[in-house]
Amino acid sequence: MLTHGRESPLDAARVVVLGAGFIGGAAADAIAGEGIAVERLGRKAVDLLADGAGDALAKRLRADDVLVVVAAEAPCKNGAMLERNIRMMNAVVAALKARPVEHVIYVSSDAVYADSAEPLTEASCAEPGSLHGVMHLARERMLLDEGGVPVGILRPTLVYGADDPHNGYGPNRFRRLALAGKEIVLFGEGEERRDHVLVDDLGDLVRRMVVHRSTGVLNAATGEVHSFRAIAGMVADHVASPPAIKGSPRSGPMPHNGYRPFDPAATFRAFPDFSYTRLADGLALTHKRAAATA
């Protein structure tokens, strides 16, 4: 579902990463590793919710830039957050109208897709069942319909890594609990099966989309699903004194009916030499990094 503007990789003159936190930082690191100039813009540099944010961002852009948009208030949990996220994208669109760039990449989310028992692909129905998905789908359309520049969209599934700031249920929270010697409490019996992608792989996919000037949509998901109980066990194996892993009563139905698989074929068609990091290897790498900075 990606179309490469450049079949042979071409370095950008400069890449501006808007929102250089966990995911944006990984993308910026991967791009800088190619020797490409990178401008990392966090909230202190450009506050997209401030008055005049569009003008402030436009002043930092150049015509030959590639702009990577990661900045968001996420996960989007309520109407107020949805409204702020739309305001942020309005500022980005205003900046692009005032100072068009060569190419834009937007890091979205797999939350835009409706649930399905069949593996999700880039052609699957984009019918979000959450405000988080609504937010990302709306921002995608704003860029496509109003941005006026070529757009590539990357839709990752659950992302993990040592620097994750959200401590969401799954590898990130389990690792922190294990390192602190605390028991891991699962939702239900942890039977939900989900796909998880290492943040390094996500950063590399952004880099590849930059140098190929890729447009269209690409999912970022490994194609393998694991239960949360299995993930907790993998995490526990990396600490000297493995914590207890316990189930707990559920307060509601399992998200996504407990199963959200992906078909990653489009990734390998777009980038034949790319391979996703297997979960066991990614968890080992993440634990090593986290332990080194503890």
Measure the end-to-end span.
Answer: 41 Å
Secondary-structure content class = alpha/beta
Q: From the alpha carbons, calculate the radius of gyration and give it in angstroms.
A: 19 Å
Tertiary shape: globular
What is the number of helical segments per DSSP (H or I, 4+ residues)? Answer: 9
Mean pLDDT: 95
Uncertain spans, ≥5 residues at pLDDT below 50? Answer: none
Spatial order of the strands forming the largest sheet: 1-11-6-5-4-2-3
Approximately what portion of the residues adopt beta-strand conformation? 15-25%
Major sheet, described briefly? 7 strands, mixed
Number of strands: 14
Question: SSE string, helix = H, strand = E?
Answer: EEHEHEHEHEEHEEEHEEHEEHH
The percentage helix is 25-40%
Task: Provide an overview of this structure.
The protein has 294 residues and is an alpha/beta fold. The chain has helices spanning 22-32, 53-58, 79-98, 131-146, 171-179, 199-212, 228-236, 265-270, 279-293; strands spanning 2-4, 14-18, 38-41, 65-69, 103-107, 151-156, 158-160, 184-185, 193-194, 196-198, 214-220, 226-227, 245-246, 259-260. Strand 2 (14-18), helix 1 and strand 3 (38-41) form a beta-alpha-beta unit.
Keywords:
3-stranded mixed sheet, 7-stranded mixed sheet, globular, 294 residues, alpha/beta, single chain
Topology:
Blueprint: E1 2-4, E2 14-18, H1 22-32, E3 38-41, H2 53-58, E4 65-69, H3 79-98, E5 103-107, H4 131-146, E6 151-156, E7 158-160, H5 171-179, E8 184-185, E9 193-194, E10 196-198, H6 199-212, E11 214-220, E12 226-227, H7 228-236, E13 245-246, E14 259-260, H8 265-270, H9 279-293
Parallel strand pairs: 2-3, 2-4, 4-5, 5-6, 6-11, 7-10, 8-13, 9-14
Antiparallel strand pairs: 1-11, 9-12
Helix pairs in contact: 1-6, 3-4, 5-7
